[in-house]
Write a structure and sequence with these properties.
It contains 6 helices and 14 strands. β5 and β6 form a beta hairpin.
Length: 343
């Protein structure tokens, strides 16, 4: 059973999930990918995944059959377990608890060879709708304190499957990175009287040198202290701590602007491996100073000894340059996803 362990001195949580080492393609560093027919995310292979928990089927149809446009199901090799309770035990080495939570996959479209930046705006919106829906459902479990939504794309970004997808993992603790951001947001508000994230947005009016795109509902920019080359953040203009507070119009805008932003990164950097993380407030109450957002991190450099030793990243590309490059980049093609047959 996967365990959460907390270091007695630093307070850092880790998940020890020994079961996951059994999954195929683990530690595949060569980047070999599955052929379409073998891909469990493709049409015709629905019975090879755990039963679906959500699927958009515009033409109707039976669950766990082809015909879906977006499909979600539990991860076959979860990093957490839905069984048990998160009872925390103290040991001299640190705390330990069962890693209770859900680990789900959302497949973005039926087409195996399409990238996120090549989705149609409508398809990207359907994906965001599915993310919000699953986030809301998972958040109803009272044992869950935080939900991480993320996308791994490419072997170097930790993905063992080429077919474009997202994952959600819910956990019974609030992880360190999230605590640092929520505590930082609170301190910033105390000191300056405004939300630090709102200030980032207002400080980057059109023409700002780190701005990539400004929309009615979202702003896309290279953060001032970017850790990675071409690191890109997407912030909602409206102050809201919790992703579940997203409105219908914002949902449509987010689909479009996220697709375009990933499209720019794909075009400018020739389809690099990348990760996207959603940061939303922990599910406990009392994080009104937080401001939810997305962070996109192309994986062009490797965190090495200095980064691991210090937590300080050496970024070889100034965010002002990164923004200029991405602003000029073609946001990519938009195609309607190609419908494929059963195999
Ligand atoms: Zn596939
Ligand atoms: Zn704010
Ligand atoms: Zn963040």
């Amino acid at each position: 059973m996967p365990e959460l362990r907390k270091d007695a001195v630093t307070g850092t949580w880790v998940i020890v999930a020994a079961e996951r080492s059994k999954r195929p393609h683990d530690f595949n560093l060569q980047g070999h990918h599955l052929k379409h027919n073998d891909c469990i995310f493709c049409y015709g292979n629905e019975n090879k995944t755990p039963p679906e928990v959500l699927a958009w089927r515009p033409l109707g149809g039976e669950p766990n059959t082809p015909g879906w446009t977006v499909r979600a199901f539990p991860n076959k090799f979860p990093a957490v377990t839905v069984q048990g309770a998160p009872d925390c035990r103290e040991t001299p080495d640190g705390n330990i608890m069962t890693a209770v939570g859900a680990h789900e996959v959302i497949v973005d479209c039926p087409d195996h060879s399409v990238s996120f930046g090549q989705l149609s705006d409508r398809q990207a919106e359907l994906v965001i709708q599915a993310l919000v829906e699953r986030f809301r459902v998972l958040s109803r479990n009272p044992m869950v304190r935080y939900i991480q939504v993320f996308k791994n794309c490419g072997t170097a970004a930790g993905s063992s499957i080429e077919h474009v997808h997202w994952q959600l993992i819910s956990v019974p603790v609030v992880p360190e990175n999230v605590l640092r951001e929520t505590a930082g947001a609170e301190k910033y508000r105390e000191k300056h009287g405004v939300c630090g994230y709102c200030r980032m947005i207002s400080g980057q009016g059109t023409g700002g040198e780190r701005v990539i795109e400004t929309g009615a509902d979202f702003v896309v920019f290279s953060p001032f202290a970017s850790r990675f080359p071409y690191e890109t953040w997407i912030l909602p203009r409206r102050h809201e701590a919790d992703f579940r507070g997203i409105g219908d119009k914002e949902l449509t805008s987010l689909g479009r602007i996220l697709r375009k932003t990933v499209g720019r990164i794909e075009q400018a950097l020739d389809y690099p491996p990348y990760n996207i993380v959603l940061h939303s407030a922990p599910l406990d109450k009392g994080y009104r100073d937080y401001h939810w957002h997305l962070e996109i991190m192309p994986r062009l450099s490797v965190a090495a000894g200095f980064e691991l030793g210090t937590g300080v990243f050496i970024n070889p590309v100034a965010p002002e340059i990164s923004a200029a490059v991405l602003r000029e980049a073609d946001p990519g093609m938009r195609q309607e996803p190609v419908r494929k047959g059963g195999n």
